[in-house]
Structures are given as structure tokens and as C-alpha cells.
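Q: Make up one entry.
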Amino acid sequence: MATPNTKRKRLIEKSLPPKIESYIPESRLFLQLQALERKLDSKIVRKRLEVQEALGKPVYKKRILRIFVSNLAANQQSAAVPMYDTDAETREAKLDAGEAPSWTLRVEGRLVDPAGATWKTRPPPHKFSEFLNSMVVELDRDPELYTDNVVQWRREAVENDVDGFEIKR
């Protein structure tokens, strides 16, 4: 039984039994065609790599980018004691003491390791922002009460790459 990682043999990789050559003399032509096809395949691959190298384009591999979105709320009032039920002085004291209700949105991402990769064959890690040119987070809030409902990030030339983004309110 074949494992999922083994490749199926292509038609050019299959060989003919030696007995067929004695019965069918034209089978030598088939073997010559197979050899020619192998040479052509190797030349095409080599030329493609040369062109990509000359253009300065990297060789792309399809991988999975896993994105993690999480949120954290702090100093939120419980439903039993809403903030508007307390008197104005207590409310202002809490806000002045830095206990204002807040939340944090984190957006992180990383490449999933390819199947069967070991620590020796694992590609070097990339930062999440390397894969993005810009990111826009649009908040679903009442535009009459809140004016800044869109948070944007755009790549700068001198900016260091980061593993994630954090939005605090």
C-alpha cells in the first residue's frame, strides 16, 4: 500500500519489460522518446528557474497562512451594577483612576508548517506583516456617536515586520 506522501509514477517513468523488445522492435523508439522527454523536462525546469532568477522573482510555494483573531475586555461593568446607576462622582473617580472600560483586538498570523516537515527541513519563520501590504479594520459602531470607526495600517519602507497587530480602545 502506498503512503500518501509517495508520488505516483508518471508514464515516462514506467519501463517496458525486456521481453517486449524481442517481440516488438519498435519499442526501442518508445524508450528513446522517454529519454528525450526526460531531457526536455529537465531543460524546461532549468530555464524556468533561470528566468525567475533573472527577473528577481522568488519561487512561490503554496502554503497555509493561519490567522488568529482574539479580543480582551478590561474594566467592564457587570450587568448587575451598570455604570450609569452609580453616582456621577464615583463614575468620574473610576475614569480618572484609569479604570475606564476598554477592549483590545489582536490579529496574529503565521504560516502552517508543511506536512512532514522536521525541525531541520522547516523553512525559516516569517513575520505576519511580511504577507500584507495593508490592513483595514472597520468597527461596527454608530457613526453619529463615534467618528473613528476605521483603523488602517499600511506598509512603510523602513518599518520592521511584526507578528501581529493590536488595536486598543
Remarks:
- The chain has a mean pLDDT of 79.
